[in-house]
């Protein structure tokens, strides 16, 4: 077996002799002693007996970066090509490849890895090492694998000036680009940490990123969560000792004090070079790179997270680009968020979150997910949880509460048709605000939740945007939209864009603001309301006032919301995480129906946000106008955003309008906007009529399939009463888990 111990620069000494040497050095040369001790302690505390294993394509700079990291840690550095393979074979790597050929070379290379042993070292793998499964499993047993993720175009440029005879698989019929793309699947399988290396980033900078990544990997204590209603200065010792991590907040949903969870140290920030390294990446690759930085590997390892993301977005979206950006007119671009299975932006989170949830929850307990929806969330969450493995469905069930008379006919048909053996839809004789408030009250009712746990072994969890995990996938598509504009040559990286989003619950808007905080150059975040314009009034005046306001039923029902739950997270952020102030504001809203921001906070808010609203009449007019001039049909929510964007943009930069749903979901309103006189009340007939227009985009495939199904055509209806809702919940638990 090949050992590395001969490379160790330090000889073995006894503890007594070490103590004696340290004492002499400390007395004679205290500065030198401090430097040596700091270097030794840094290396030992960071590495211990583990290795840092650098992995990446040829030309990624693994050898150079490895030497710098080893120098910083004062530890052995091993290059697998030079120090192991050529030593073992007694010939150059290129000669070995030429002698035995591609397949035999990989096998011989893997055998050499299996015989290799080291500890406390920095190891640079060859570009082809990750293609040998047994060899990599052996290496990972005592190492942290760091993937130097360099864009393919950068690698191609670097390798132009280098000899290519050491690249495994290169032949006259196979291009270098093909080889690099093929190998990505193996790199993704093995790494623990990804380091984004965009552009001409210096090796010294990459080395620092490697060390920072290893420190983060080894210390999950840095990434804890707090409630928006907790205050650092006012937290008890018990609260400080009971730390909450990503896996905790995914399963818990809502904080015990009624607040919402946020990361204690904020979101990670990407450098401009890191973002530029993702310009040529696919949507799935961007999602992996972003979410890895938001979810600590102690909660979900990078390889498992990659598997979950592939499952969520790999085959469930009808467009290969997942969230394409389409030019509409002038400086306006549409971010199409409706290519998922249920035709709305909610699919981005709810194809992913069920798998995150299933991975994070303890195996010893059953979980019932509670959801409130104003329309789109219902079918999206039902579809998402229906795709879990059968074993997970046995311990995870879901109940979806929606306003019985407050959603479109097609939305209701979707929710009823998407019911499965572990998920149900319950219509409530009230509006969305009641449904959402009821769920929050149920979560904070410790008597009821405790009873369910003791009596039925079942805990409650949330899948609404009050759950932190719901927001993360939305950050991804806002960032991806900007990168797409750069990739298409519309803008250069660093140029600003505005974003306009139809919003009622503020989650989608908050995700855009988070993307801005993480380094995406978003200038204005424009909130677009319908006639339930409480958010618009608040952003303009600083007064959040529900007194005397009644919910108005509009053609854009997903934003028929008066109580904007995610606004709490935003206010917590601009109030410098003052949980006491947030508690005061939202208690006042709950008890008195209004609150007012201080002048300084309103100033901060208005630096970030602008807002406008749109009537139903203007909404339908916009749909007709856009179709007449472009042949493209907007859904009612996107039309609201289009109207507001037209009014508020200054046309000095591109504006990305979030197209949050497919127009097929709101067929009656769309047909009315297109001036159709007679509208058949059958949802399927309405879709067939719309399809006859041959408009862009085409009729949504998932909606047609859902409406053609003859399965579950029934659902339960519940009075707007807390006791009735809790009774429904208990009955569903009894029927499913007992």
TrEMBL record:
Name of protein: THNS1 protein
The protein's annotated pathway: Amino-acid biosynthesis
Gene Ontology MF: a single term: pyridoxal phosphate binding
GO biological process: amino acid biosynthetic process
Modified residues (N6-(pyridoxal phosphate)lysine): 346
Similarity comment: Belongs to the threonine synthase family.
Assigned keywords, A-Z: Amino-acid biosynthesis, Pyridoxal phosphate
Cofactor(s) of this protein: pyridoxal 5'-phosphate
SUPFAM superfamilies documented for this protein: P-loop containing nucleoside triphosphate hydrolases (SSF52540), Tryptophan synthase beta subunit-like PLP-dependent enzymes (SSF53686)
GO cellular component: cytoplasm
Organism: Falcunculus frontatus (Eastern shriketit)
Domain Threonine synthase N-terminal: 239-313
InterPro entries for this protein: P-loop_NTPase, Ser/Thr_deHydtase_PyrdxlP-BS, Shikimate/glucono_kinase, Shikimate_kinase/TSH1, Thr_synth_N, Thr_synth_N_sf, Thr_synthase-like, TrpB-like_PALP_sf
């Amino acid at each position: 077996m090949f050992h590395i111990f001969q490379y160790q620069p330090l000889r073995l000494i006894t503890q007594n002799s070490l103590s004696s040497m340290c004492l002499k050095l400390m007395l004679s040369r205290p500065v030198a002693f401090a430097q040596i001790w700091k270097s030794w302690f840094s290396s030992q505390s960071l590495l211990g007996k583990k290795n840092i294993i650098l992995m990446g394509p040829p030309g990624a700079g693994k050898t150079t970066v490895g030497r710098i990291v080893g120098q910083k840690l004062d530890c052995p550095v091993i290059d697998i090509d030079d120090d192991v393979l050529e030593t073992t074979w007694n010939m150059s790597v290129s000669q070995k490849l030429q002698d035995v050929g591609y397949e035999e070379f990989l096998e011989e290379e893997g055998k050499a890895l299996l015989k290799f042993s080291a500890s406390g070292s920095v190891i640079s793998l060859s570009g082809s090492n990750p293609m040998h499964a047994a060899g990599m499993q052996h290496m990972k047993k005592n190492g942290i694998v760091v993937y130097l993720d360099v864009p393919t175009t950068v690698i191609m440029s670097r390798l132009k000036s280098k000899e290519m005879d050491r690249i495994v698989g290169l032949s006259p019929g196979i291009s270098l680009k093909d080889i690099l793309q093929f190998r990505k699947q193996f790199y993704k399988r093995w790494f623990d940490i990804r380091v984004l290396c965009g552009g001409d980033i210096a090796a010294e900078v990459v080395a620092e990123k490697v060390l920072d990544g290893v420190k983060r990997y080894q210390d999950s204590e840095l990434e804890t969560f707090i409630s928006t209603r907790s205050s650092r200065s006012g937290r008890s010792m018990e609260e400080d000792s009971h730390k909450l991590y990503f896996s905790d907040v995914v399963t818990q949903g809502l904080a015990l004090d009624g607040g919402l969870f946020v990361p204690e140290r904020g979101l990670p920030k990407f450098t401009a070079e890191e973002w530029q390294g993702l310009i040529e990446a696919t949507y799935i690759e961007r999602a992996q790179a972003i979410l890895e930085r938001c979810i600590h590997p102690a909660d979900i390892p990078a390889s498992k997270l990659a598997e979950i993301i592939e499952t969520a977005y790999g085959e469930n979206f009808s467009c290969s680009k997942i969230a394409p950006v389409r030019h509409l007119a002038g400086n306006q671009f549409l971010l199409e968020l409706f290519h998922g299975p249920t035709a709305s932006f909610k699919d981005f989170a709810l194809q992913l979150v069920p798998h995150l949830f299933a991975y994070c929850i303890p195996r010893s307990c059953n979980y019932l997910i509670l959801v409130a929806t104003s329309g789109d969330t219902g079918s999206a969450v039902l579809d998402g949880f229906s795709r879990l493995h059968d074993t997970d469905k046995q311990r995870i069930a879901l109940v979806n509460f929606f306003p019985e008379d407050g959603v479109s006919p097609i939305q209701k048909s979707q929710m009823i048709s998407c019911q499965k053996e572990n998920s149900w839809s319950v219509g409530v004789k009230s509006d969305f605000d009641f449904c959402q408030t009821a769920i929050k009250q149920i979560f904070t009712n410790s008597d009821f939740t405790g009873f369910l746990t003791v009596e039925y072994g079942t805990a409650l969890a949330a899948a609404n945007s009050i759950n932190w995990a719901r927001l993360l996938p939305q950050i991804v598509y806002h960032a991806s939209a900007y990168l797409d504009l750069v990739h298409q040559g519309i803008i250069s990286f660093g140029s600003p864009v505005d974003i306009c989003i139809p919003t009622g619950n503020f989650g989608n808007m908050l995700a855009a603001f988070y993307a801005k905080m993480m380094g995406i150059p978003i200038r204005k975040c424009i909130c677009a309301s319908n006639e339930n314009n409480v958010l618009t009034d608040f952003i303009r005046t600083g007064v959040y006032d529900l007194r005397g306001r009644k919910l108005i039923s509009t053609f854009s029902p997903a934003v028929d919301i008066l109580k904007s739950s995610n606004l709490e997270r935003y206010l917590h952020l601009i109030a410098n995480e003052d949980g006491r102030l947030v508690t005061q504001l939202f208690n006042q809203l709950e008890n008195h129906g209004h609150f007012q921001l201080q002048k300084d906070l309103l100033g901060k808010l208005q630096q970030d946000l602008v807002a406008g609203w749109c009537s139903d009449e203007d909404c339908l007019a916009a749909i007709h106008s856009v179709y007449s001039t472009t042949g493209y049909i907007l859904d009612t929510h996107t039309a609201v955003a289009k109207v507001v964007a037209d009014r508020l943009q200054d046309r000095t930069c591109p504006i990305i309008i979030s197209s949050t749903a497919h127009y097929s979901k709101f067929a009656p309103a769309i047909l009315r906007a297109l001036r159709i006189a007679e509208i058949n009340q059958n949802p399927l007939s309405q879709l067939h009529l719309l399809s006859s227009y041959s408009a862009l985009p085409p009729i949504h495939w998932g909606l047609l399939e859902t409406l053609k199904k003859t399965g579950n055509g029934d659902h339960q209806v519940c009075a707007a009463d807390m006791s009735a809702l809790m009774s429904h919940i208990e009955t569903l638990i009894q029927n499913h888990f007992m």
